[in-house]
Amino acid sequence: MLLQVERLDVYYGAVHALKGVTLCAEAGEIVTLIGANGAGKTTLLRTISGVIPSRSGRVTFEGRDITRLPAHDIVGLGISQAPEGRLVFANLTVEDNLELGAYRRKDRPGISKDREEVFRLFPRLRERRRQSAGTLSGGEQQMLAIGRALMSRPRLLLLDEPSLGLAPLLVREIFRTVREINQRGVTVLLVEQNAHMALSIAGRGYVLETGHVRLEDRAERLLQNDEVRRAYLGG
Amino acid sequence: MSEFLQQLVNGVTWGSVYALIALGYTMVYGILRLINFAHGDVYMLGAFFGLYAAQWIGAADHPTPVRAFVVLVAAMLGCGAVGAIIERAAYKPVRRSSRLAALITAIGVSLLLENGGILVFGPNPRFFPQIVPSSQISLGHGVSISNQQVIILVVSTGLMFALRFIVLNTRVGKAMRAVSHNHMAAALMGISVDRIITFTFVLGSMLAAAAGVLVALQNPKIDPLMGIMPGLKAFVAAVLGGIGNIPGAVLGGLVMGIAEVLVVGYLSPSYRDAIAFVLLIVILLVRPTGILGTQAAEKV
Ligand SMILES: Nc1ncnc2c1ncn2[C@@H]1O[C@H](COP(=O)(O)OP(=O)(O)OP(=O)(O)O)[C@@H](O)[C@H]1O
Ligand SMILES: [Mg+2]
């Protein structure tokens, strides 16, 4: 098992945001996490990445307990995240953003090679490499956020609503790229509100509801599930 | 005319000192949204560390350029360490508390350094040794500049370019910019946000220390409260240029230095300290974001 989350409890002050969440991802999978606004999806990804502390429960990655590790060390172990809202460094260039994605790495040739790979996945970023990230369109910023997350050579990639605010055509392009990234051996944990798209590229899925895992199944079965269809697929 | 030029030379000299101090305020603000009110006192410590270093290596009795340089570096290293200690011991514990808690902490640290200074260095002014024997250089038309002013200008300009290089071109500088943009996003890159914050305090404190030594070359009377006024003025300079904005701090410092000598020269020396506050009020009324500052547009 690549990633294992066991009975995780997270609070924001008095708000109990995650209530005993258990979830896992096997190497090579695309696992999706769907749920309504406020269900706790972002909280879960942030806790895995170590930017939010958990009160109880455990996160293990490749058999190693990472629950209490600081965020910057978790990146070094091979988990990276393209966060909700993209959070690209607006005043830095596209290239500098990518370079920061590789902050923990020292292998210069490897870094340039991976940057070329990001430019191959997202050719628009190459054209805009010296432009400051704040001047990119929303879709380009999302590409940059994903590309930047790839620069640390993750084995697990956490994506928080990559389709947010993007036109349908662009959403399809992003999802195609996510699948390609996965085919190169990167395990993906994908948080989405666009449940249809997410379930169509994922192998398995979890439905999160007010901090609980409500359902867990193979993606094609979730697509057929009445409850899921009603709540997340618009009938 | 020559009178005006002479004032301008003096103003730019003072301005570059304010700029050095203002950079520390603005970098810390950029990264923590905190006004480090103890920063002026770090400048004071720089002068005292310089004094002790000068006595230690005998730069006072046998001044040489190398010894003067050693004094400068020693003061910068000493204050860099003090900056790191202040950040770790005082500010880090309250980082997740309210801004009011951070503000009170800053004022507390400032009082601690001032009163600790009185305790350790004594309440009376001390004389900073002549580590660079003074001489005047004539620029013609009745305008002259002292060699000490030249040193102030050259060293502060050099330090500002060094800072610019660090911030724009190095790995740690890019990490500083990432942290100042968004702590969480920076942490997700694998940047140790804590370490970058400490580094920022170290850099700012080193610049303040350099300012302390440079000023002491010219005004050798130093005392534990000497940091209060320049600290306030440099803070105003940082606000003037746009707090959080590095070129803004340099511009604000120069404007402050020039405004000050013009007021002294053409109005009255007794208004010297008042001009800082006039500038502060004017900028807050006319352009609260400062000359080069932009509206805080992050966190959409
Ligand atoms: N910083 C915070 N302080 C207090 N409560 C928070 C904070 N962040 C999130 N919450 C609360 O925690 C719960 C889970 O929020 P979270 O952002 O994880 O949901 P989400 O599933 O990602 O929602 P969305 O689809 O809108 O992004 C919500 O009830 C939210 O109000
Ligand atoms: Mg969310």
TrEMBL record, chain B:
Primary location group: membrane
GO biological process: D-alanine transmembrane transport; L-alanine transport; L-isoleucine import across plasma membrane
Pfam families, per the entry: BPD_transp_2
Cellular component terms (Gene Ontology): plasma membrane
Membrane topology classification: Multi-pass membrane protein
UniProt keywords, alphabetically: Amino-acid transport, Cell inner membrane, Cell membrane, Membrane, Transmembrane, Transmembrane helix, Transport
Membrane-crossing segments per the record: 12-35, 42-60, 66-86, 98-121, 150-167, 196-218, 250-268, 274-294
InterPro entries, sorted: ABC_transp_permease, BCAA_transport_permease
UniProt entry tagged with the keyword Nucleotide-binding: no
Family: Belongs to the binding-protein-dependent transport system permease family. LivHM subfamily.
Protein name per Swiss-Prot or TrEMBL: Branched-chain amino acid ABC transporter permease
The organism of origin for this protein: Eiseniibacteriota bacterium
